[in-house]
């Protein structure tokens, strides 16, 4: 299957090394509460984990890392927490983009960024432009992202680009309008923090992804935890509808 396509009719190339890892970084609030700290302290500590995981992915030759930073539903949190998360995001963008660039990392954001303050939108655009030609690792931040939003905006765009009625389309055509069309579908999904749900993350793209859930809270997700997730992935047999016998031939 060619890179970037999203059809379940063909079996993609897979190997022992996940090419694309997608992570729901959950558990910051509980990490802080355990220490009698405000939730914000957990989010701050979570940024450290982001740095470490980017490094681990680079070291392991992972080509795509996608991190869920803020969901389309997270606006429902208390206003002071939303505002803190926005400041943290703005600060991280301002400080980290040049370092990502130095390390050969391509930076991308998926999600409806129109709702962010203009300073954040500018940082995102500049960061994406600056790092566009880098190829060591593609780091995608999902911000104000929702899997249902993604599918809906893809349908909307596809309809706008189609001149003939009725519109003829298939999975392949729709997938071209999804916000992560530039990446192969995730091989490994990780969710920290103990919840076993997808929380409206990459709904379309996770169709055949190997899922890994750990109770470890995001600020505690260190190199050892990362290696455990990779090891778990390496023990899976990805069958894509086939039988085990067919795979082992
Ligand atoms: C994940 O940690 C970070 C974001 C959603 C931004 P949480 O803030 O959800 O932490 P818990 O789940 O309350 O522990
Ligand atoms: C999912 O975490 C979103 C992010 C990590 C950004 P949540 O903590 O918001 O998920 P739910 O609400 O518990 O499902
Ligand atoms: Mg949570």
Automatic annotation (TrEMBL):
<feature type="binding site">
    <location>
        <position position="31"/>
    </location>
    <ligand>
        <name>substrate</name>
    </ligand>
</feature>
<dbReference type="GO" id="GO:0008834">
    <property type="term" value="F:ditrans,polycis-undecaprenyl-diphosphate synthase [(2E,6E)-farnesyl-diphosphate specific] activity"/>
</dbReference>
<feature type="binding site">
    <location>
        <position position="77"/>
    </location>
    <ligand>
        <name>substrate</name>
    </ligand>
</feature>
<feature type="binding site">
    <location>
        <begin position="197"/>
        <end position="199"/>
    </location>
    <ligand>
        <name>substrate</name>
    </ligand>
</feature>
<dbReference type="GO" id="GO:0000287">
    <property type="term" value="F:magnesium ion binding"/>
</dbReference>
<feature type="binding site">
    <location>
        <position position="43"/>
    </location>
    <ligand>
        <name>substrate</name>
    </ligand>
</feature>
<feature type="active site">
    <location>
        <position position="26"/>
    </location>
</feature>
<dbReference type="GO" id="GO:0005829">
    <property type="term" value="C:cytosol"/>
</dbReference>
<feature type="binding site">
    <location>
        <begin position="71"/>
        <end position="73"/>
    </location>
    <ligand>
        <name>substrate</name>
    </ligand>
</feature>
<dbReference type="InterPro" id="IPR018520">
    <property type="entry name" value="UPP_synth-like_CS"/>
</dbReference>
<protein>
    <recommendedName>
        <fullName>Isoprenyl transferase</fullName>
        <ecNumber>2.5.1.-</ecNumber>
    </recommendedName>
</protein>
<feature type="binding site">
    <location>
        <position position="39"/>
    </location>
    <ligand>
        <name>substrate</name>
    </ligand>
</feature>
<keyword id="KW-0460">Magnesium</keyword>
<feature type="binding site">
    <location>
        <position position="210"/>
    </location>
    <ligand>
        <name>Mg(2+)</name>
    </ligand>
</feature>
<feature type="binding site">
    <location>
        <position position="191"/>
    </location>
    <ligand>
        <name>substrate</name>
    </ligand>
</feature>
<feature type="binding site">
    <location>
        <begin position="27"/>
        <end position="30"/>
    </location>
    <ligand>
        <name>substrate</name>
    </ligand>
</feature>
<comment type="subunit">
    <text>Homodimer.</text>
</comment>
<dbReference type="GO" id="GO:0016094">
    <property type="term" value="P:polyprenol biosynthetic process"/>
</dbReference>
<comment type="similarity">
    <text>Belongs to the UPP synthase family.</text>
</comment>
<feature type="active site" description="Proton acceptor">
    <location>
        <position position="74"/>
    </location>
</feature>
<comment type="function">
    <text>Catalyzes the condensation of isopentenyl diphosphate (IPP) with allylic pyrophosphates generating different type of terpenoids.</text>
</comment>
<dbReference type="InterPro" id="IPR001441">
    <property type="entry name" value="UPP_synth-like"/>
</dbReference>
<keyword id="KW-0479">Metal-binding</keyword>
<dbReference type="Pfam" id="PF01255">
    <property type="entry name" value="Prenyltransf"/>
</dbReference>
<feature type="binding site">
    <location>
        <position position="75"/>
    </location>
    <ligand>
        <name>substrate</name>
    </ligand>
</feature>
<feature type="binding site">
    <location>
        <position position="26"/>
    </location>
    <ligand>
        <name>Mg(2+)</name>
    </ligand>
</feature>
<dbReference type="InterPro" id="IPR036424">
    <property type="entry name" value="UPP_synth-like_sf"/>
</dbReference>
<keyword id="KW-0808">Transferase</keyword>
């Amino acid at each position: 299957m060619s890179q970037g396509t999203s059809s379940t009719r063909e079996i993609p190339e897979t190997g022992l090394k996940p090419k694309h890892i997608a992570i729901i970084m959950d558990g910051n609030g509980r990490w802080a509460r355990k220490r009698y700290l405000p939730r914000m302290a957990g989010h701050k500590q979570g940024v450290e984990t982001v740095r470490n995981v980017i490094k681990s992915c680079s070291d392991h030759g992972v080509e795509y890392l996608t991190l869920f930073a803020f969901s389309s539903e997270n606006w429902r949190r208390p206003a002071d927490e939303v505002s803190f998360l926005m400041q943290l995001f703005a600060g991280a963008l301002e400080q980290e983009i040049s370092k990502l660039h130095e390390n050969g990392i391509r930076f991308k954001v998926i999600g409806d960024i129109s709702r962010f303050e203009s300073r954040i939108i500018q940082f995102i655009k500049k960061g994406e432009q600056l790092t566009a030609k880098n190829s060591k690792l593609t780091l995608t931040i999902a911000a104000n992202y929702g899997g249902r939003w993604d599918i809906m905006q893809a349908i909307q765009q596809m309809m706008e680009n189609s001149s003939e009625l009725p519109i003829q389309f298939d999975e392949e055509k729709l997938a071209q309008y999804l916000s992560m069309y530039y990446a192969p579908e995730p091989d490994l999904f990780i969710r920290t923090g103990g919840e076993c749900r997808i929380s409206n993350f990459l709904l379309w793209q996770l169709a055949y992804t190997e899922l890994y859930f750990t109770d470890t809270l995001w600020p505690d997700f260190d190199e050892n935890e990362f290696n455990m997730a990779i090891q778990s992935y390496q023990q899976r047999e990805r069958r894509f509808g086939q039988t085990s016998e067919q795979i082992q031939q």
